[in-house]
Design brief:
The complex is a heterodimer of chains A (about 300) and B (about 450). With about 300 residues, chain A is of the alpha+beta class. Chain A is elongated. In chain B, the strands form 5 sheets. Chain B has a 4-stranded antiparallel sheet with strand order 6-7-5-15, with helices on one face. A 4-stranded antiparallel sheet of chain B has the order 9-8-12-13, covered by helices on one side. A 3-stranded antiparallel sheet of chain B has the order 10-11-14. Chain B is elongated, with a radius of gyration of 28 Å. Chain B has 3 domains: about 80 residues, Alpha-Beta Plaits; about 110 residues, Gyrase A, domain 2; about 170 residues, Multidrug efflux transporter AcrB transmembrane domain (Multidrug efflux transporter AcrB transmembrane fold), CATH 1.20.1640. In chain B, helix 7 packs antiparallel against helix 8, helix 8 packs antiparallel against helix 9 and helix 8 packs antiparallel against helix 11. Classes of the chains: A alpha+beta (about 300), B alpha+beta (about 450). At the A-B interface, strand 2, strand 4, helix 5, helix 7 and helix 8 of A face helix 3, strand 6, helix 7, helix 9 and helix 10 of B. Strand 4 of chain A pairs antiparallel with strand 6 of chain B.
């Protein structure tokens, strides 16, 4: 090979990148299968009650709830009446939670605001969108492996996000709610968006330097798009870090989910989708009986 | 010449967006050279036929509160073990009605309190709670009734039900009578319903056929001829709003149980003002960091991109007010995030420009080819995202996909973000860069 064309070979270490991915995905997936996700009141419903007590404050109730490990979703104060919504409460725990002097005005059981139908239809929608994106990418890049690798990278990112929240749910009681669904959808779009930018460079280099090995083209494309990938993700990560550190509690885990997804999405475009292309290319050559004439 | 026209277009759009974005009745007091100047800034109210926007930003339950209605279902005729299911399907019908009525970011929950089966509907800032209440609470049981024998003085109580009911309906829509131009409701039956309708009209030629909604007769046209093709019209003295609401309730389906209003109250915002202020401040810090990052990295190119971002923010906010989109705290976080993401196309282009400059091209041709070459990537990447928004929004109302609530709202805001960022990232920055360049030369 001409020394002039010598390029960095970051894709040589693809096994290392897959190993890093697996080290995140395997524990997450294990937790996902074993413990699942911790659904919030949005999916599960819960208890809602109204208390009357002029000696209580919202902070008192919140402190007592965290002491008893009760998840409070909403508290609002109207004169001396507190309307409180929590995860489903057993009778015993409820009696512990409520001070004897507090007057109970009502106690109700609420159903989920996100029904099972909405969840299953959204999942259908995601699969349909993924298939269409696969077809679109395969068509635009004139090769099925591009579409399939992009979708695998997207799957990678959703597994990272779902696994992270499954672990967080199991060990720290973090719940997934409506906002988590939104974050997941955002990350799925971001993931493909980022992957296509890397692919575009591969397509362009292939046109210009068709004489190069496919592996070299991918390596070069990865090196060339690295600056853009890092800069773009940096702007988003700046944004998210600021909102995570300074923002209110309500959106904290939503922002965290986006943060995890953005990092995973940036990583997977370069270190999952691109090496997969090379691997796919190699395997398809090996499997054919007569090796396709490879230019030297 | 073209450049001048484009710049004019950008300035005009930005100015229009500023007018739309202006707060309502915001007093300004300042003293200039010893003179006190005070005036009130206010965005106008737009009115075009039936389309009217007061240009107030719609705020969700978390930011502004709203109206909460507790409905109670009459479960008397339903076996105890089926009551939870009946309540859940009533909840779904009501949620669909609320969505069709256009109240975004509402919540509809079932509440079981002892042996009372209730549905809690929380609606963020609506103008006409009574109308919404009527819409939510009506059972919407539609059926067609015929007379056993033709009499001159038939009473509505003489009509007997046929087998054609609201469940045979495929779609109801609002139309206008071609002669009186009064609003009317067009009914399109399913294939099965069309057959039934054809049979019923065939045996009732010359006789009245009554349409009942919730056991109440709404019209009784006389059948002129057998009607094939499965469509019918309900006409009468309706206002446009009444016709629209009738179509909404018919489309959303009939309630499996009858419902009555138990209580109605205004609810306070679920989030404290400090939580909102914190998030907005956080967003501001994040935006400032992004702006600074762009300037440090790309110099005055970054400055132009930042200007593009400001225009992006103004245009998006204007669209939110015009459509209108109900803003919640997570929505706000998403909006701020989308501003961060909107710089992506600029980064792609600027990195390309840097490469072209390194190859020794001059500035102006580097810029043009930077835009040209980055376009392929930008186009493919954004089309992939647009596919996602299309599926999630489900504009064709495919029944196996979601057609309600939060997922749809998400898809709409994502779509707006992409469309606007394509416009500002490509068209606006490019022309601004050309303009600054032409001054340099």
């Amino acid at each position: 090979m001409n020394t002039e064309l010598k390029i960095l070979q970051p894709m040589k270490y693809y096994w290392l990148y897959f190993l890093i991915s697996l080290s995140v995905i395997l524990p997450g997936s294990y937790s996902l299968i074993r413990y699942g996700l911790k659904p919030s009141i949005d999916f599960n419903g819960g208890s809602t009650f109204v208390w009357q007590d002029s000696s209580l404050t919202i902070d008192d109730i919140k402190a007592k709830a965290s002491e008893l490990e009760i998840t409070v979703q909403e508290i609002s104060l109207n004169n001396d009446q507190f309307a409180i919504t929590t995860a489903p409460l057993m009778e015993g725990k409820y009696q512990e939670f409520k001070a004897p002097t507090t007057i109970e005005l009502s106690f109700d059981t609420v159903g989920p605001s996100l029904g099972a139908e909405l969840v299953s239809k959204t999942i259908t929608g995601i699969f349909l969108a993924a298939s269409l994106i696969l077809l679109y990418v395969a068509y635009r890049f004139k090769n099925f492996k591009f579409g399939a690798s992009a979708i695998i990278a997207m799957l990678h990112d959703s597994l990272v996000l779902l696994g992270t929240f499954s672990l967080l749910g199991h060990y720290f009681g973090i719940e997934v709610d409506t906002l988590f669904v939104t974050a997941l959808l955002t990350i799925l779009s971001f993931s493909v968006h980022d992957t296509i930018v890397v692919y575009d460079r591969i397509r362009e280099l292939k046109k210009k330097h068709g004489y190069l090995e496919f592996e070299d083209i991918v390596n070069r494309a990865v090196v060339e798009t690295m600056g853009r990938s890092i800069n773009n993700s940096m702007t988003i990560i700046f944004m998210l870090l600021a909102m995570y550190l300074l923002g209110g509690d309500t959106t904290k885990w939503f922002i965290f989910a986006l943060l995890v997804g953005t990092i995973s999405g940036t990583y997977s475009s370069t270190f999952t989708a691109a090496p997969l292309l090379i691997l796919w290319d190699k395997l398809s050559h090996r499997s054919s009986i007569l090796p396709l004439s490879r230019r030297t | 010449m073209r450049l001048r026209r484009n710049i004019f277009l950008i300035v005009l759009l930005t100015a229009l967006a500023l007018v739309v974005d202006a707060p309502k009745n915001y007093p300004v007091n300042l003293s200039l050279l010893g003179n006190n100047i005070s005036f009130v800034i206010s965005s106008p109210t737009l009115k075009l036929g039936t389309w009217e926007r007061d240009l107030n930003i719609k705020q969700g339950l978390d930011l502004k509160g709203g109206t909460e209605v507790m409905l109670v279902a009459d479960m008397g005729s339903i076996a105890v073990e089926n009551r939870s299911d009946a309540l859940e399907s009533a909840r779904e019908v009501i949620a669909r009605r609320v969505d069709l009525y256009g109240v975004a970011e509402s919540t509809v929950k079932t509440v079981i309190s002892g042996d009372s089966y209730r549905i809690n509907v929380a609606l963020p800032g609506i103008d006409n709670p009574d109308e919404a209440l009527q819409l939510i609470g009506s059972t919407a049981k539609l059926d067609f009734r015929e007379l056993p024998e033709a009499t001159d003085s038939a009473l509505y109580s003489d009509f007997l039900p046929t087998n054609l009911t609201g469940s045979d309906l495929q779609k109801a829509s609002v139309g206008f009578n071609s002669q009186t131009s009064k609003p009317e409701v067009n009914l399109q039956f399913s294939e099965e319903g069309g057959k039934k309708f054809s049979e019923i009209t065939a045996r009732n030629i010359g006789k009245p056929l009554a349409i009942f909604l919730d056991e109440y007769p709404i019209s009784a046209p006389t059948v002129q001829d057998r009607i094939d093709g499965g469509s019918a019209v309900i006409n009468g003295e309706y206002t446009l709003d009444e016709a629209k609401n009738m179509a909404i309730t018919l489309n959303a389906g009939a309630l499996p149980v009858s419902i009555s209003v138990l209580s109605q109250q205004n609810v306070a915002p679920t989030l404290g003002a400090d939580s909102v202020a914190k998030s907005i401040r956080a967003g501001g810090v994040g935006l400032a960091l992004v702006a600074l990052f762009m300037i440090l990295n790309y110099g005055w190119l970054g400055l132009v991109a930042d200007l593009g971002l400001v225009i992006y923010g103004l245009l998006t906010l204007a669209l939110y007010k015009l459509i209108p989109i109900t803003l919640t705290l997570p929505g706000l976080a998403g909006f701020i995030l989308s501003i961060g993401m909107a710089v992506d196309s600029n980064i792609l282009i600027f990195e390309r420009m840097k490469e072209e400059m390194r190859k020794g091209n001059d500035w102006s041709s580097s810029m043009e080819s930077g835009f040209g070459k980055a376009w392929d990537a930008i186009k493919d990447a954004n089309i992939a995202t647009l596919i996602t928004t299309f599926i999630l929004y489900n504009p064709l109302e495919w029944s196996f996909l979601n057609s309600s609530g939060m997922v749809r709202g998400f898809a709409l805001t994502l779509f707006l973000g992409i469309a606007t960022s394509l416009f500002t990232g490509i068209f606006v920055t490019r022309n601004l860069l050309r303009a600054t360049m032409s001054k340099k030369i």
